[in-house]
């Protein structure tokens, strides 16, 4: 039986906790043997979403095979959380020193930093707080824009949904990929993403607008980016003329529908190449007739489509 202890900090984000807890709960349902505990410095723990939680204040006895996870909290704005005492930090240090694994979700990486576990290690956190983490812990080797990082039994994730990816990885390491796949299917998680996936996909980067007609077109391109899509068909799907669609699409995304489709194709191709697929095979898989166009687009957009697995960043 593996014990998973969640250290709850005031103003924690519910999904930072619930996602990983659901992974281990589901794994236990399948017979992999997990028992979860929730500890805090005070019994009543307020959350960022307003739902109060209750935890125990005494820590259970932990063995090297057990896990300690620190979910993230509201790191900015009124009512920001993150209050954590030295006694809790010492518990984290002792568990790692005794051969155990410690993990964090989102801003929870700060707790690992304060415990001294990020010094000299690769780590990540949510993109909105990564600059602050780099400033506060200059000896940490921050890796930006990835889902999770593993370094010497210190596991950090970007936050929110990426906490699920991180914990599925931990299940896979302990019980094999088939076990993680079984848990993912039960949770209706489409696919287990690897740690060096970017946090903000091209799809999400260009969705920050309120144009319903453009969203409808993006929905179509997102679903069929590997197909040959004609502007007339896209315009029909959006309910506007081709000229109007091109104008509106450019106003809210800064590009044409074709360029958006190319972004999705290249991003997917980069993922496949990072997993060992040849450039030629990746090009055909995403809808290019051969690799020449893919190579041309990769060369033109090299900064945006950097290969998977970025190097650690130097704090600014």
Short description:
The chain is an alpha/beta fold and 316 residues long.
Which stretches are poorly predicted, pLDDT < 50 over at least 5 residues?
305-312
**Helix tally?**
13
CATH fold name of the largest domain = Rossmann fold
Class by helix and strand content? alpha/beta
Output the CATH class name of the largest domain. Alpha Beta
Q: Tell me, rounded to a whole number, the average pLDDT.
A: 88
Rg, Cα atoms, Å: 22 Å
H-E order: EHEEEEHEHEHEEEHHHHHHHHH
Overall number of domains: 2
Per DSSP, what share of the residues sits in E-state strands of 2 or more residues?
5-15%
| CATH architecture label name of the largest domain | 3-Layer(aba) Sandwich
Biggest sheet: strands, sense, closure? 6 strands, mixed
Count every beta strand, where a strand is a DSSP E run of 2 or more residues: 10
Order of strands across the biggest sheet?
2-1-5-6-10-9
| Helix content estimate | 40-55%
Shape: elongated
CATH fourth-tier homologous superfamily of the largest domain: Class I glutamine amidotransferase (GATase) domain
Organism: Actinacidiphila oryziradicis
InterPro entries: Class_I_gatase-like, DJ-1/PfpI, Homeodomain-like_sf, HTH_AraC, INH-QAR
Protein name: Helix-turn-helix domain-containing protein
GO molecular function: DNA-binding transcription factor activity; sequence-specific DNA binding
């Amino acid at each position: 039986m593996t014990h998973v202890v969640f250290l709850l900090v005031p103003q924690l984000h519910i999904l930072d906790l619930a996602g990983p807890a659901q992974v281990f709960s589901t794994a236990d349902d399948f017979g992999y043997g997990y028992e979860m505990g929730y500890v805090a410095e005070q019994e009543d723990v307020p959350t960022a979403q307003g739902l109060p939680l209750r935890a125990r204040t005494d820590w259970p006895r932990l063995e090297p095979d057990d896990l300690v996870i620190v979910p993230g909290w509201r790191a900015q704005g009124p009512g920001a959380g993150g209050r954590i005492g030295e006694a809790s930090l010492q518990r984290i240090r002792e568990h790692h020193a005794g051969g155990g694994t410690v993990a964090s979700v989102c801003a929870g990486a700060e707790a690992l930093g304060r415990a001294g576990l990020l010094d000299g290690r690769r780590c990540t956190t949510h993109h909105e707080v990564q600059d602050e983490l780099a400033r506060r812990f200059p000896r940490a080797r921050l890796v930006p824009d990835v889902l999770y990082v593993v370094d010497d039994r210190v596991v950090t994730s970007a936050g929110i949904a990426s906490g699920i990816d991180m914990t599925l990885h931990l299940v896979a390491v302990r019980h094999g990929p088939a076990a993680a796949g079984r848990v993912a299917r039960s949770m209706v998680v489409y696919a287990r993403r690897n740690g060096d996936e970017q946090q903000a996909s091209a799809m999400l980067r260009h969705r920050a607008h309120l144009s319903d007609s453009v969203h409808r077109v993006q929905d179509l391109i997102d679903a069929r980016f590997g197909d040959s899509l004609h502007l007339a068909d896209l315009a029909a799907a959006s309910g506007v003329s081709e000229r109007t669609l091109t104008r509106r699409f450019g106003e809210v995304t800064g590009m044409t529908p074709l360029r958006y489709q190319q972004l999705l194709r290249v991003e997917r191709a980069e993922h496949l190449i990072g997993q060992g697929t040849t450039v030629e095979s990746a090009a055909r898989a995403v809808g290019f007739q051969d690799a020449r166009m893919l190579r041309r687009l990769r060369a033109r957009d090299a900064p945006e489509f950097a290969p998977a697995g970025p190097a650690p960043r130097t704090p600014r």
